[in-house]
Design a protein that fits this description.
By secondary structure, the chain is of the alpha+beta class. It is built from four helices and four strands; from the N terminus they run H-E-E-E-H-H-H-E. A hairpin with a 5-residue loop joins strand 2 (about 50-55) and strand 3 (about 65-70). Bound molecules: zinc ion.
């Protein structure tokens, strides 16, 4: 039975790897959002990742639309793609909670944090595998820092360094 358990764990990891590659190859919500209310740029000099995140908040402080543009490694692009997929429909508070949860999970400082039942982390868990590659964590968190920065209205680009 143990062999089966270990094997299914590998399958899950493969599934997550496939998910990341899929989002890296075909990023969702890629491109400029012309009617964005909030935007921020993120730069990860270590890897050369550079992206700009766009968010449109509606009157109820909900994220009505989100997109990103830029270039970077597969992990940074996949993370931004997953992020935009996930935050559309969330409130600002939920989006900021997601930032805290995802960056906490990735940096290992906050892995036990209970997830807000209203937030479906779903595919974002695919990024957990990045924890095994500490040098790539900044690639994965870049878009999330840009989201945090955009919502707080910061105009200077955020840098991971
Ligand atoms: Zn990168």
């Amino acid at each position: 039975m143990n062999a089966v358990d270990i094997h299914s764990g590998d399958d899950l990891r493969d599934l997550y790897r496939e998910l990341i590659l899929d989002h890296a190859r075909s990023p969702r919500h890629f491109g400029k959002l012309d009617d964005a209310t909030h935007t921020a740029e993120g730069i990860n000099p270590l890897c050369g990742d550079k992206l700009r995140l766009f968010v449109r908040l509606d009157a109820d402080e909900k994220i009505a639309a989100a997109s990103f543009e830029g270039s970077g490694c597969a992990i940074s692009v996949a993370s931004a793609s997953l992020l935009t997929d996930m935050i559309i429909g969330l409130t600002v508070t939920q989006a900021l909670d997601s930032f805290a949860i995802v960056t906490g999970r990735l940096t290992g400082s906050d892995t036990d944090r209970e997830l807000d039942a209203a937030i479906d982390l779903g595919k974002i868990k695919a990024l957990d595998g990045v924890r095994e590659f500490p040098s790539r964590v900044k690639c994965a968190t870049l878009a999330w820092h840009a989201l945090n920065s955009a919502i707080h209205g910061q105009s200077t680009p955020i840098s991971t360094e």
